[in-house]
């Protein structure tokens, strides 16, 4: 055996972020009984799953993967989900918002309306059903001002709620994962990563992504300052018109509330250039669900959202 | 983010935390720093402006950049740490904007425990308050050795040279006790932006760096959080998890601390004291000959030993102490009194074990930063205790190693972390 000689001091902040995330993944697996990894098919969850595989090589993933399916999906994302999870050797659970609607757990907001907020109930029901005591998420603190306040290991009470006024102290690297049955933790190994860090890491590790992250021709309508894809759920209303243009997605969510941005960036390098020069935040540019009020994310997080 | 910012990968990372008393302007300073270095997106600035107008606090309340919770904006205070990220052509910053209220001291310690630098904010019209001293003291105990002191609200103090000098004098009096390697005192107005990113002509008596320049001038720390020249300390690898190899054999996973670990190194597994040799090191970049501080790795050993989570693999040339009983300094966050006989769950590196307080020995007087004999600690007090653990632990003095010298105490009934502990006496000079 002749391992490649290389400099093994952390070389840059991406190496440090990577090792720190792996450290968190391993701590939570060691401290909790039944962890699960929440996977949306977006770039952050792709990076998270990539890191999870790395953290437990060569043993294999010690936890299953959970996708909360709103039923309003980009087909490219579902295809990517299945391939990526298979390549990672993961066991995939899918919890369906449509099932929650059919069971009367939540009320269908109507054809083509966002099911974003309904996901919380489906997620908490799945956590209860499988008795998960920790759920890894790809959320980053730079995404939103409420997320900026959240611990790496974030406690959820028996109702799945986050109480931002009563967070556990989190000192040094001493992550503490004790919960009593019924309660659970959310664990965010990518807390300190920025959107740019994610893209640079994807470039460095050649991580696969759904094709919709790169510029492509798409039929869109402009609504509330966002470009929405015309599809089964979204049609022109009133005097809206649709047209075809080059767009890409900066985030992946429910089709009905995730906007595309005008873009010509077809490669990772071009996307990175675009991220560096962007003047609008990721969620501001693409998520209708964050625009309801000053504290949209805080309110949803309190209820148990991702 | 601004187009003029450097596109090349950034190799230099600095973590800093704001500390100081409530209402002295910590959040406003971070808001100012982020706005003036153009770290904020247009929609984020617009949202802050809208929220400011809605709450009738002027055109833009810069504190709202980090005070993002509803309760914080209602009350105009910071309740918990906000983490923000900034990069300049020189380096990348991870910012922990900490609360000032004594009620939220545990949150402040959360933000400061991983910081390389403390950005100390002092209201120049009022001087150093008791709470400022408490924060300075906690930061010093946590091993933060670089202080950038912002004499804030200098506009309100009419840019009075004496107001600035008083803070310089007070800090000079404290520098020795706090064992600071560097203390820079900068007259600023966070509100107006004087000497934050841009030099100001309002203080002709001051010719030093701006806040940003001072932050860029401090040597960057290593995220893993060690200090005091740990390169002389042998490797420390707390075992997190055992990885089974498909063909048989085990790899021990953990993050490297102290000196780099090499294939062929003689190691000892503590607390049992078993000896072996490193045969294999797996890093995130594949198999390697060695791995340095801050890297998450897994290692293979030459001998088939009984090693489990919580054990520590250490370089054989410099062993930590192994003991059931330690003297420690603690910041107590519990709402009840800490007294001898109290039982906790302790977490030290990757080991969780029951612990009992054998004795409370002293409490730290915040006024003069001296230890006074005491038998109990009240909420948010700092003191020294003797702790007995159910399992022997491999510990270094906190002043030598921030990872192997730190622990937390957890209330067994509520699962809440109630104390931050540091092995050894307080890292303060008499």
Task: Describe the protein in words.
The complex is a heterodimer of chains A (306) and B (430). Chain A is of the alpha/beta class. Chain A has two domains: 13-198 and 296-303, Rossmann fold; 208-290, no CATH class. Chain A is 31% helix and 16% strand. Chain A is built from nine helices and ten strands. The radius of gyration of chain A is 19 Å and the shape is globular. Residues 1-5 of chain A have low confidence and may be disordered. Chain B is of the alpha+beta class and 430 residues long. Chain B has three domains: 13-217, Rossmann fold; 230-315, Translation factors (Elongation Factor Tu (Ef-tu), domain 3); 321-423, Beta Barrel (Elongation Factor Tu (Ef-tu), domain 3). Helices cover 17% and strands 35% of the residues of chain B. Chain B has seven helices and 25 strands. In chain B, the strands form five sheets. In chain B, strands 7, 8, 9, 11, 12, 13, 15 and 16 form an eight-stranded antiparallel β-sheet that branches. A six-stranded mixed β-sheet of chain B has the order 2-3-1-4-5-6, with helices on both faces. The radius of gyration of chain B is 23 Å and the shape is globular. Chain B starts with 12 loop residues before the first strand and ends in a 7-residue tail after the last strand. At the A-B interface, helix 1 and helix 7 of A face helix 2, helix 3, strand 2, helix 4 and strand 8 of B.
CATH class of the largest domain in chain B: Alpha Beta
Number of strands of chain B: 25
Shape assignment of chain B: globular
CATH third-tier fold name of the largest domain in chain A = Rossmann fold
Oligomer: heterodimer
* Distance, first to last CA of chain B: 46 Å
Q: Given the helix and strand composition of chain A, which structural class is it?
A: alpha/beta
| Strand composition percent of chain B | 35-45%
Query: What's the domain count of chain A?
Result: 2
Pick out the low-confidence regions of chain A: 1-5
Query: Cα-atom Rg of chain A, whole angstroms?
Result: 19 Å
**Can you identify the CATH superfamily of the largest domain in chain B?**
P-loop containing nucleotide triphosphate hydrolases
Helix content of chain A: 25-40%
């Amino acid at each position: 055996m002749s391992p490649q000689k290389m400099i093994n001091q952390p070389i840059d902040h991406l190496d440090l972020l990577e090792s720190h995330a792996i450290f968190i993944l391993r701590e939570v697996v060691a401290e909790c009984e039944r962890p699960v990894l929440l996977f949306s098919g977006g770039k952050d969850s792709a990076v998270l799953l990539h890191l999870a595989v790395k953290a437990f090589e060569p043993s294999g993933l010690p936890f299953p993967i959970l996708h909360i399916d709103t039923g309003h999906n980009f087909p490219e994302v579902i295809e990517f989900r299945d391939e990526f999870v298979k390549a990672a050797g993961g066991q995939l659970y899918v919890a369906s918002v449509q099932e929650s609607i059919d069971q009367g757990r939540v009320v269908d907001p109507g054809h083509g309306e966002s099911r974003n907020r309904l996901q919380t109930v489906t997620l908490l029901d799945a956590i209860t059903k499988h008795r998960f005591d920790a759920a890894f998420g790809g959320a980053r603190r730079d995404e939103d001002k409420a997320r900026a306040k959240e611990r790496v290991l974030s406690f959820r009470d028996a109702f799945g709620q986050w109480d931002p006024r009563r967070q556990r102290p989190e000192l040094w690297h001493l992550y503490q994962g004790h919960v009593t049955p019924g309660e659970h933790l959310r664990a965010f190994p990518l807390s300190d990563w920025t959107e740019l860090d994610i893209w640079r890491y994807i470039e460095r590790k050649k991580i696969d992504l759904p094709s919709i992250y790169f510029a492509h021709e798409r039929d869109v309508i402009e609504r509330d300052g966002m470009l929405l894809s015309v599809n089964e759920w979204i049609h022109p209303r009133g005097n809206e018109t649709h047209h075809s243009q080059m767009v890409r997605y900066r985030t992946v969510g429910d089709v009905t509330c995730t906007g595309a941005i005008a873009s010509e960036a077809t490669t990772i390098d071009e996307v990175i250039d675009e991220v560096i020069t962007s003047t609008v935040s990721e969620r501001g540019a693409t998520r209708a669900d964050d625009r309801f009020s000053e504290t949209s994310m805080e309110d949803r997080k309190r209820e148990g959202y991702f | 983010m601004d187009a003029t910012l450097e596109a090349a990968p950034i190799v230099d990372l600095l973590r800093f935390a704001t500390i100081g008393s409530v209402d002295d302007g910590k959040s406003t300073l971070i808001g100012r720093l982020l706005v003036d270095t153009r770290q904020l997106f247009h929609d984020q600035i617009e949202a802050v402006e809208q929220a400011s107008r809605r709450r009738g606090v002027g055109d833009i309340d810069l504190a709202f950049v980090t005070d993002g919770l509803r309760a914080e904006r209602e009350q105009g205070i910071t309740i918990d740490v906000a983490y923000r990220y900034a990069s300049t052509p020189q380096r990348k910053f991870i910012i922990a904007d900490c609360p000032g209220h004594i009620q939220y001291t545990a949150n402040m310690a959360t933000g400061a425990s991983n910081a390389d630098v403390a950005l100390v904010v002092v209201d120049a019209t009022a001087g150093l308050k008791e709470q400022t001293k408490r924060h300075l003291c906690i930061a010093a105990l946590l091993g933060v050795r670089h202080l950038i002191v912002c004499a804030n609200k200098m506009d309100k103090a009419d840019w009075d040279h004496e107001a600035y000098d008083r803070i310089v004098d007070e800090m000079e009096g404290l520098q020795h006790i706090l064992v600071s390697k560097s203390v820079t005192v900068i007259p600023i107005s966070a509100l107006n932006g004087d000497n934050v990113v841009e030099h100001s002509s309002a203080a002709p008596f001051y010719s030093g760096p701006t806040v940003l320049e001072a932050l860029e001038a401090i040597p960057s720390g290593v995220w893993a959080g060690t200090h005091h020249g740990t390169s002389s300390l042998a490797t420390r690898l707390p075992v997190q998890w055992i990885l089974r190899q498909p063909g048989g054999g085990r790899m021990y996973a953990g993050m490297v601390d102290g000196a780099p670990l090499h294939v062929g190194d003689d190691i000892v597994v503590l607390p049992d004291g078993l000896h072996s040799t490193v045969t294999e090191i797996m890093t995130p970049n594949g198999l390697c000959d060695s791995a340095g501080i801050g890297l998450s790795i897994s290692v293979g050993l030459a001998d088939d030993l009984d090693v489990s989570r919580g054990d520590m693999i250490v370089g054989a040339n410099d062993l930590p102490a192994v003991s059931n009983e330690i003297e420690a300094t603690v910041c107590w966050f519990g709402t009840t009194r800490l007294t001898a006989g109290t039982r906790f769950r302790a977490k030290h590196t990757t080991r969780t074990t029951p612990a009992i307080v054998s004795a409370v020995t002293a409490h730290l007087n915040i006024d003069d930063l001296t230890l006074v004999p005491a038998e109990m600690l009240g909420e948010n007090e700092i003191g020294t205790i003797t702790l007995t653990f159910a399992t022997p632990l491999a510990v270094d003095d906190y002043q030598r190693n921030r990872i192997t010298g730190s622990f937390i105490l957890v209330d067994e009934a509520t699962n809440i972390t109630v104390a931050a502990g540091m092995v050894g006496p307080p890292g303060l000079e008499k």
